[in-house]
Design goal:
single chain; Jelly Rolls; 3 domains; 7-stranded mixed beta sheet; 7-stranded antiparallel beta sheet; 4 helices
Length: 273
């Protein structure tokens, strides 16, 4: 008779006459029962562990996939636009127009649909902004910030800090560091942030360089040279001259600086180059 058959008889006796079973057999049956229970528990634990591991692996895959899907695309750089020796016209995504004087540079935020922001990093820019009451148009220039709804104005970077702002029409708000109140400018007003004082100007002064031909009438030679140096971003040489001399001439914006200076020299008798 095999051990399994003996064990079956012992279990039958323990079930039918538990008081008559031998103590040694009772202990053996209990040990066998405990062994079966432990084996079953171990199998269940292995199954649960395998299921948990598989579920964890699936969770990791799902987690990584979801993170990949929602990670925002980083903005690596702004879109930089620069002019060379001539004026450059640019139409922005909102249909606003900007004009860069020679050797000027702006940076445009990659997602300009929100109209924020344009950064004038060098030179002079004239802005003709499309009106949009719900989306203010913002121009940064160093630490200064200019906000408009719809207007036309020019901004000149004087250095790493200060600017010269002139408004042709509409209204702009200028935010200056360390100043709690905004500077509000309307058509025909200008401000130099170095002095923070506003002044009245002819609105045509804001965009004179956008004309094909500019007629200077009785302008002081010193003032004219200053305008030319600012626009062309160059330092003119001329020796000793009378800067108060009044000059009248037509400046052709389609010609080079050298060609126009030739005409100026013929009018003044100087050698400006």
């Amino acid at each position: 008779m095999t051990d399994d058959m003996h064990r079956d008889d012992d279990w039958r006796q323990a079930w039918e006459n538990p008081e008559e079973i031998d103590p040694a057999k009772r202990k053996a049956l209990l040990d066998s029962l405990h062994h079966k229970m432990d084996a079953g528990r171990n199998r269940r634990l292995r199954v649960i562990s395998l299921f948990t591991a598989a579920a964890a692996a699936a969770a990791v895959v799902i987690f990584l996939f979801v993170r990949t899907m929602i990670t925002p695309i980083p903005i690596t750089q702004w879109r930089e636009i620069a002019s060379n020796t001539t004026m450059l016209r640019v139409t922005l995504d909102d249909s606003s127009k900007l004009y860069l004087a020679p050797h000027s540079t702006i940076r445009v935020y990659p997602k300009f649909t929100t109209r924020r922001s344009v950064d004038l990093t060098k030179g002079i820019a004239f802005f003709d902004v499309t009106k949009d009451d719900n989306h203010p148009f913002t121009v940064a220039a160093g630490p200064q910030s200019i906000t408009v709804l719809g207007t036309a104005f020019s901004v000149q970077r004087l250095d790493s800090i200060n600017i010269d702002l002139m408004v042709r029409d509409g209204k702009v708000a200028l935010d200056v560091p360390n100043q709690t109140r905004r500077i509000l400018l309307t058509a025909g007003q200008t401000v130099n942030t170095a002095t923070r004082q506003t002044a009245q100007v002819d609105p045509k002064e804001t965009d004179w360089w956008l004309q094909q031909k500019v007629r200077w009438h009785n302008i002081a030679l010193g003032d004219l040279l200053q305008r030319l140096e600012n626009y062309y971003r160059t330092r003119l040489t001329y020796g000793t001259i009378d800067k108060q001399m009044k000059v009248t001439l037509t400046w052709d914006m389609t010609l080079s600086l050298e060609e126009n200076l030739g005409l100026l020299n013929s009018v003044t008798g100087y050698s400006i180059h």
